[in-house]
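Much of our argument rests on the idea that a fold can be written as discrete symbols. The record that follows shows the chain in one-letter code together with its fold in token form.
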Amino acid sequence: MIGLGETIAFWILGPLALAGGLAMVLARNAVHSALWLAQTMLCLGALYMVQQAPFLGFVQIIVYTGAIMMLFLFVLMMVGRESSDSVVEVLRGQRLKATLLGIGLAGLMAGGLTRALTNVTPAAPLDPSTPQGGGPGGLGRLIFTDYLFPFELTSALLITAAVGAMVARWPDLPVYVHERGAPHLIDPSKLLASAERLYGDRMEYLWGEIVPVPEANVKPLAGGEDVLGMRVAYTPGHASHHVCYFHEDSGVAFVGDVAAVRIPPSNLIVPPTPPPDIDIETWLESIALVESWRPERLALTHFGAVENPIEHLELVRHRLREEADLAREFSEEDYERHHRALVAESVGPETAGELIQCVPPQYQWRGLNRYWEKRAEREAA
């Protein structure tokens, strides 16, 4: 017997699923059509759960709606479908033929369902733990034994499709970089070799796959140029190839790592100091250069916007000197212990993990220690 809750769920979800299906067919915008289809899929997943089929419900939501449907939507957005796309019929009579074929298909499906549901003899319940029983355990064994290869192949094809969509969407994307960094974008092998010595087996986990940029796309900068309405400045100190951009119309300065790391909602500022290019005096000069722009807002790479730029830059200046002094005073182990304690005291547990991953304390000390060693060599010369 159908319960009251099941009846209510059906009359809510059923019309929503039907409306989503109709809207998907009638929508003229491809992205909107995909979103309506996602609504229908979500409703179907909920109906499966109401019918006491949670596995099918979660598969419907996670696999079809959450993965495949969102991939379709992602690809549509990448290739730039717009509401202005032409809906003019370019093949004469195609709508009439499509309508007739649709009616024929609907009749065929209705006939098949009628025959399938007429004079059906109920079967004995199957064991849900076996593949034939349709239970999660049996289906799981089938997926990860007999059907493991096609399952993995499908996932690889979906990933390839997403990457292909990005390449197809932006084949001529220009990449602006300081002239010292340009060779490493074109051929990152030396950069990767150096980074792998630093980060070890965590390299791919931290930064993902790194691929070369086509040489034709790379636009080297020296500082002092105007690019896309933005003033370019050479700002070393954190890195020898670092540049900052100032968009004068909006007053926004895109400052990279010169203005340090701050992960909201925390206000803790951590200057990132990995080796090999840390130079405190040069970094302070770069901060002064950004300050001279009198920006209304800073855009930090890690992470977000800063609405009080002058105050923030002064704090970066203070924290940079403080961290340099601590690295000279402490051993690597003591510095790392102090850094982790500071982060734990200043931010919440979740933000603390993100901040430690973004600026690992052991790399912080090594960059600053290298700076002090190079400075001592210059002073002794």
